[in-house]
Amino acid sequence: MKIVIASDSYKGSLNSGEVAGAIEKGIKNVMEAEIVKMIIADGGEGTVDALVDARGGSYGHMVVSDPLGRSINAKYGVIGDAAVIEMAAASGITLLKEEERNPLITTTFGTGQLIKGALDSGCRRIYIGIGGSATNDGGLGMAQALGVSFTDKAGNELGSGGGELSKLYDIDIKNLDPRIKNTEIIIISDVTNPLCGEKGASNVYGPQKGADKEMIKTLDNNLLHYADVIKERLHKDILNIPGSGAAGGLGAGLIAMLNAKLCRGIETVLDLIGIDGHLKGSDLVITGEGKIDGQSIFGKVPVGVGKRAMKYNVPVIAIVGSVGEDYEKVYEHGINAVIDIVNRPMKLSEAVENASYLIEKAAENAMRIYSINRRA
């Protein structure tokens, strides 16, 4: 019997590899099987590890600026002649304390430094996962780190953060790192929000980054002005491109400045790790994530895995930290059963602390039920 384990991380608790290890223990408590463990991500946290693990790559490490300009250590992956970057490693919201969140001043400069590091490593294809940002600067900092000049009417360089964009008058790309012209930039994201408006970067994601109502209005107006200047100076209309609002407009900046191509997050990752080759001939797939609900059908790992497994008529069990509203929708997208790891009343802190054991026991119970079905 062959079982493929392909679960997302349980954010704030266990990474994808740790979840897979716990599921493997639960399976082995019941039966012997050929088990294939795959590290999975959707373009956000864990994407670098997933691709390096699947493709036998290596890591690069460098010192970059965090969202507030402080020096931190960050890593990126190298797979052949390609690099894999998580913008969250340099410009992510988890790098800030809650009281430090302020999208008027947070910057993507460190993400630009990671791109430069990948270029220095000789990579000429760069995959950039842009989930989990702390920023709303439209990729201003990223482009500044790569040599693009943004100036006000007086010719002064803009500072950092989304609050600076209101001053923007001119953009000069003549000093953009010349290696960019010969480099393929691929954005890994399932976010389809436009840059501005009710469904834009500021309105939808601004609150979680520390923006109040007034700040959201300011940030949205600033990104609109940013788009106007880009259209006038660079002759690129990025305002309503689906995904341009991803990561506080970093999607727009990457498209406008680096000619990046936007690709679907989970689908791109699944292709790159070669999951189809493992699904063919398998008997069961076990996936999961920290919380599954009706929104999971929009680009989350379990449903992405479930849809691939459907192609090969392989049943899929999702082992999850919790279930939310309308989670039953996933049954229409390749998931055959959902099992919640919480097996008795407990506090969230207790569930997080004991997540590995609870996942193991949930997997054990799943396999006992699956064994009964096989004997029937």
TrEMBL record:
Protein origin, superkingdom: Bacteria
Keyword Glycoprotein: no
Signal sequence region: none
Single GO term (MF): kinase activity
InterPro entries the record matches: Glyc_kinase_flavodox-like_fold (IPR018193), Glycerate_kinase (IPR004381), Glycerate_kinase_RE-like (IPR018197), Glycerate_kinase_sf (IPR036129)
Listed Pfam families: Gly_kinase
Keyword vocabulary terms for this entry: Kinase, Transferase
Record family assignment: Belongs to the glycerate kinase type-1 family.
Protein name: Glycerate kinase
Lineage start: Bacteria, Bacillati, Bacillota, Clostridia, Lutisporales
